[in-house]
Structure formats: structure tokens, C-alpha cells
Amino acid sequence: MNSLVNYFKSIDFFGATFNQNIDKKQQSFKSVFGGIMTLFIFSASLAYAVYVFYKWQTNQYSPKITTFVNTSSFELLDLDYDIIKLSYSEYKAGLIDPFEEKVLIPLLIYTENFEYGTPTVLTLSNQTSYYGNKYLIPKMQLGFSYVNGNLMTTSEMYVQIVKCTPDLLEEGESCASEETTKKFFNQPLNYIILQVKGKQLNSKDGSVQTSIQEFYIQIEETTCYTFNIFLQSNFYEVNDSLLFGQSKQNEFINGALIQSQSNSAQYCYQAYGNITYASFYIAMKGDQIKTIYEYPSAGDLLANIGSIVSVLFMARFMIFFLNDYYLNEKIINDLIAFYYPQFHQVRFKRNWRRQITQVKFRNQKIDVDKFKSFYEKVKSKMEQKLTFENLIYEISRIYILIRANMTREEIKRSHLVGLRLDYLKEIPKNLTSECEGDIAQHENDVRLLNDDDIALLSLYENKVALKTMIFEEKSQSTFFDINRVKL
Where are the transmembrane segments (predicted)? Predict the structure, then answer.
């Protein structure tokens, strides 16, 4: 059992070491300057940490952005909004809007596996353009499948701008008159505006932003324009969690590529079966751009804070150096005062180079050069006394002096001597007999160890005792009387 306990003790990673105090009040030397610098460093570090987290909270840190080409199944693609809008460019008042006047009819055709579906007439929406006329908004319906391992758009869309014919209208509607039609084609700058609305993520805060591309399509009576519109998409992956959490994923249309071609009206009539002035083929590009936003995590923020804090804490080396210097000076001066008690009454000033410029003893100026000579000599001796080797040597000399006055047996008996606890105090037997008087009892009490012996040589106890001790002013010739110093 003891071996197991000892084993657990041996593997204790958190063992505490004993650190001896410099004096009764402090275990390590501390200075006012060090305290001010400590307060400054910790305050600056805390302020910078708050500043860093504030910038992170208010999205002021730019994310790390990675972009590459990606192939997607478009499962997350958002098509549920008005991606494509068409309107007539009624740039001035008095122009004939071909869609409102039924000069032209917009047809919407969906394909399935490359086969045309039934055309439907696009009706004007309630949304108005900046010219004041209404938009045509086809509903997006695209399908995707893999063909020979390649992702392709197998459900596509066509929007065709054709000449109005009665069979394309509902009951009660009629096409524009021949005069209105002729007047329309005689108008200058007949344009249809195609808008493609895309979405992007704002890299600053991850919010969704919209953008619009506009394409102008000229309408001429003798020409048919065909446009292949390949919608581009972007896949966004956002990592914005502070510690843990899954990334957010979004997929948006972000623009379009257009291939245009002009053909004769006869060509389009043969191809589509109607007098067609413009045809829009709408499909998706098979590849897309994948963008990854990696916002700073807790580790990045702490690393940022740590780098600045490390720079601030470089000042601690200067503080350590100064505290070490002042600690060494304090110990040397205290040690000098042990041998020269009056040294506590010496006050000296130093300049910025730490040179002694003025010395006072009991408020009286004394010779600086003479004091410096004394101080350097004594300081050198005290520095030697503080070395570990010298301390061991002096202890060994003390033993020699004790051994010179005591036998080995007497020294060995010192290991058996100690202070008794008050409540267990036993009166030694055979020390006195009943017939012995008060004088003998007093002699034994003087020799008996008690609590006063603990601090008999204590520096701090004797500092207090010296203030209250009264010395008799009579002539004596003991060692202590000869060398006593009056403070």
C-alpha cells in the first residue's frame, strides 16, 4: 500500500515547491514601477482583447476567401424568385409598348429531355420598370441530370417574342391593328430589356445582396435575334462559428453569359413556326464557382490577441532586470545594517547613472568620497558573504567553534532537546528535591526551554525588543558592552 501511495506521489505533475520569503512581508521583490507597468500591461491587454472581440462581433474582420471551380447537382440552388425579367424600353412618352398593345406576344416554352413542350403566353406582371411599364416575368423551371457522367440541363426554357396572331390570344382579346403595328416598327430604337437578377453573399457580414445584369435586344421587322443565356451560379460555404458548428451553405444564380446571333425572319419562322423577332434559350452552366468564407475563429482571435500581448509583455524583462537590481541592492544594504546598525540612519542620493552624489548621516552631510570608499569595500564583502559557497563555509566554521567548547556527546544530546507543549508540560523529576529552596528552582527555570527561545535570535523580534530595551549606563567590560551601538 505504501509503495502505491509513493508511486502516486512520484507522478504528481502539480507538485508545489517551497519558496522562501525575502522578508516577512514579501516572497518576491516588488516595486512601485513594476506595479504601474503591470497595471498598464494588463489594462492594455484587456483593452485590446475587448477591441478584437468587438471587431469580430461587428464583422470588421475580413474572412479568408477561397475560390475554385466546382461541379454541383444544384440541389441548393435558389430559383424561387424573379431571376429573369423582360420589358420594353419605353425611354420616352408616346412610344408604343408592343406587349400592352398586343403587337408582340411573349411565349414561354419548357423542354423536357430536349423535347419542346406546349407554348404558353406570358402575361404582364404587376411589377413596373423604371420607365413605368410592366415586366414580363417567366417562372424558372430547370432540370438537371447526368449524361455520360456529365451534369447537363435536361429541362430548359425558351422565351420567344413573336408577332401577335389571334390563335395566341384568349377569348375577347385582339391583336394590334396593322396601322399600330406599322407605327411600332417605324419607331426609332425599339429595344427589349432583359434583366438577370443574381445574388451574392457579402463577405463582410455574410448577408445576401442582389445584383442586376441588363441586356438590350433590338427588335426589327426583317431580323430575328437568337440569344443563348447560360445562367452562372455560385456555391457559398460560410464558416463563421466561434468554436464549433457546421458551415452554412447557399447556392445562388450570380449572373449570366449570353451568346447572340442575328438571323433572317424567314429562318426563325421555319425553325419555330411563328414570325419570331427574338428567341431566348435559357439553361444552366454545368460548372460553377465555389466560394468558401472562413471567418476568424476563437483560435484566430486568441492568436491575434496573444501576439500583441506577447509584445507588451516584452517589457517584463526590463521590469525583471530593475527589480533584480533593486532587490540585490536592498539585501546588500540590509546585510550591511546587520553589522553596522547605524547604517539605517544613512541617507544618500544617486543620479540617473546610479552614482552617489550626496550622503547624510543623522541629517548631517558627510564626505561623499570617503563614504563611497567605505561603501564599495563593505558592499564587496557582503556580496561575498551572500554566495552559497560562503554560507556553507561559515556554517562549518560555526560548528568548529561549537565543537571547540563542547564534546561530541554533548552535541549529540542536542538532538534530544526541544520545547514542550504547554498543555503537556512535565516538570522534570530529580531536578530539585523538596528540600531545595526557591533559588535552585529559579536556576532550573532559567535553563528550561520555553516559547521565548524560538525567536531569541529572530531579526524581526529583536527589532521590536531594541526599541523597548533599557541599558544600564554603568561601566562594564563584556564583549557585548564594548561593542554596543547606540541608535
Answer: 32-54, 301-322
